[in-house]
Structure formats: C-alpha cells, structure tokens
Amino acid sequence: MPHYRYQAYDRRGTRRSGAIAAATRENALETLAQRGEIALEVIECAASPELAWWERDIFQSASVPLPALALFTRELTSLVKAELPIDEALRLVAMQPLMPKRVRQTVSSVLALVIEGEALSGALAAQGKAFPEVYWRLVRAGEASGSLAHVLEDLANFLDRSVETRGRVSSALLYPAVLIVAAVIAIGVIMTVLLPTIAPLFKDAGATPPLLIKWLNGLSAFVEQHWQLVLAASAALALAAAVAFQNEGFRSSLDRILLSLPLAGRLIEQRETGRLARTLATLIKNGVPILDAVRISGSVLSNRVLAAAVRDAGEEIKEGGDLTAPLARSGLFSELFLRFTRIGEQTGQLDTMLQRVAEIYEAALQRQTQRLISLITPVVTLVIGGIIGGLIITVMSALISVNDLALK
After folding, report:
1. Which one-letter DSSP state was computed for residue 55?
2. What are phi and psi of 362, to 5 degrees?
3. How far, in Å, CA of 147 to CA of 28, rounded?
C-alpha cells in the first residue's frame, strides 16, 4: 500500500509531521480529516518511509500493550452496556487502578476529543499508533450500525483470546528460557574465569595445556592485542544487521525462508492463518466492507509474504474478483482454509466459516506448540548438561594432569 508523508495542524494548532499508509492521496486526506488535522502537504513516498529524526513526532503515542488494550476494552464494554454516556464511561475507565499510567493518559486524550464532539472511533484513530486500525474501524462500524456495545464485546472477546494464547505460550517457554540463561551464565563463568586460571599451571610445569584451554588463551590474547579491530568488526556487524532488518526486501526473503522450514514454517502458517481468519471474521461480522476488512486483516499479519498475498487478494476484490482465488494462486494457504473460505463466499456466511477455521487453527497451534515445548525442554536439558559436563571434565582432567606433573 502506498505511503504518504504529511504536514498538518492538529486540533490545538500544533504543526505535526509524519507518515500515513493509504490506498490513495484522497484516502490519506480523509484519514487526516477524521483525526481532526488540517493538511498542509501530503506527498507520496516510498513503500516503507523512514522519516529523518528531526521530522519525527517525538511525543507520538506508542501502541497500547495487548493486555492493557484488552482490559480497557472489557471495562469500556461493561460501562457502555450499562448505557452510560461515552464520555462518562471513558472517565471511569481512566480511573481504573489496574490501568497502566501511560494507558490512562491515552484514554484521557481520547476523552478530551470526545468532549469536543469527536466520535469515539475518530478519537481513537487520532491517537496515532496507540490503537490499531482494526480496533477503531470496528468501533466505527458499531457506531454506524447502532450496536457499539455488541461490537465492543466482540472486540473484548477477541483481545482476551489473544492475551490468553500469548500468555499460555509465554508460560510454556519460561522454563526452557530460564534454563538456557542459567546455562549460558555457567558456561561463561567456566570459560572466562575458571579455565584461564588453570592455564598458568601448565606453563609453570612446562607442559602443553589441553586443546580447549590453549584455544581460549589464544582467543584472549588476540582480543587483547587487537581489541580495536574486534570492536570495529562487532559494530560493523551490528550496523549491517540493523540496516538489513530495515530493508523490506531482506525481511520478506527472511519471512519466506521461515515459511519453508519444516517445523517452524508449519507453526508460522497456522498462527498467521488463524489470526487472519479471526480478524477477517470479526470485521465482516460487524459490518466492515469486505475490501477494507481484507486490507486491515493483511496488515495484522507479521509474516510479510503472507501479508503481501492478502494485499494482492484485496486488489483483485477491488476489481470484482473473489477472495479465495487469489489466495489459492499464491500457494501459501492450506486447502482447509481455502475450502472454508470458498464455502463461506458461496453461501454468504463468510464470517461464520472464517470464525470456525480460526478456532481450528488456534486449537491446532496450541496443541503443536505444547508438543514442541514438551520436546524442547528435555533436549535443551541434555545439550546443556553435555556442554557443562564436558567443560567440567576438561577442567578436572587438566587439574589431574598438572598434579601428576608436580608429583613426578
């Protein structure tokens, strides 16, 4: 999707600069107008614009963390269902003690715009990256249909499910992560403190040290003599990696490689397909036009190859095509997903079919992730035990050999 750099005055008369993604320049102007900003200049730029540091809005809100967004939505839903006015509901949400301070400040900004007469969706969109587009688009659909409370409840359920899934995976990964960190620390202490301490004993005894100790001494001597070169090389590698990851072509190639991996690729496909189906089903169910729904759903995918395939499908829909055909031609989506999507389009129940396929893929992802973690934990334990055990055996053998030399 094209990107546009803009300069505009906000509601307070402050001049702002930034970048915005939009299908056309008119759409970009419309988005700025919805935010209550008066555009001075809107210029199309590269597909992934990076503003110079002096052009960036330093105080632009960052994304609201997913758990905080779920909490905000759940609290707002309960208050709106109780038929409180939006401004009063936002005041009460901002007073919640469990709400992070930064989120309360964002909610206060939303409240200020609502008091000025802005619709809730427009006030959310005006916060920049604080609220994702899928969020305020759904709120706008709820406002237009008069079912805001119902839409907010769907959003809350959607976010709660995402938080639960992420929390389950994080909890499962906690033990292997702690184990790996502890092992790295232990190996670092053995290799940088214990082994170099033993090396002088061999020199004093006039014996040749074991290969590992000899290699570590050589590495330590090289770093000590050429530390400027090592530092410069490390900085160059870090800079090259940072530049590479800023390049869309490189990151797309990396995403394609990840998709082709035997096990990881399958997990990525299931995660992204479930996310696409769930988001698209929620948007369509709540009245968002299919073209906007497809575009927004593609933007929530983290894998750029799959996201590009969804964007291409959106372009074909714009020209009068359907959703299933371009996704099938991409060869990136499973037959199960495509069959459910095709049936949904043919029967006019696309949201129901996508919701069902999302449940299938989310359950499959959870099951396979648990199996993978249950396999990783013992493998990591064995590998770490072997490495540390080998180092300890090396140290003990070295000490024994030095002791034998001293006794001769």
Report:
1. G
2. -65, -40
3. 27
pLDDT score, position 398: 67
Distance from C-alpha of 63 to C-alpha of 161, rounded to nearest angstrom: 19
* Band of residue 99 on the pLDDT scale cut at 50, 70, 90: confident
Q: Coil, strand or helix: which one is 47?
A: coil
The pLDDT confidence band at residue 16, using thresholds 50, 70 and 90, is low
Burial readout 270-289 (b: 16 or more C-beta within 10 A, e: otherwise)? bbbbbbbbbbbbbbbbbebe
Which three-class secondary structure state does DSSP give residue 119? Answer: coil
Q: Tell me the percentage of the chain whose pLDDT exceeds 70.
A: 85
Q: What pLDDT does 3 receive?
A: 64
* Strand ranges, E, within 22-76: 38-45
Quick one: pLDDT at residue 17? 67
Contact in structure between 196 and 217 (CB atoms under 8 Å): yes
Round to the nearest angstrom and report the end-to-end CA distance of the chain. 78
Cβ neighbors of 271 (< 8 A, separation 6 or more) are: 361, 365
Using DSSP, state whether 360 is helix, strand or coil.
helix
Does residue 41 contact residue 20 with C-beta atoms inside 8 Å?
Answer: no
How far, in Å, CA of 353 to CA of 247, rounded?
36
DSSP assignment string, 247-303: -HHHHHHHHHHHHHSTTHHHHHHHHHHHHHHHHHHHHHHTT--HHHHHHHHHHT-S-
Inter-residue contact 122 to 110 (CB < 8 Å): no
CA–CA dist 144, 138 (Å, integer) = 10
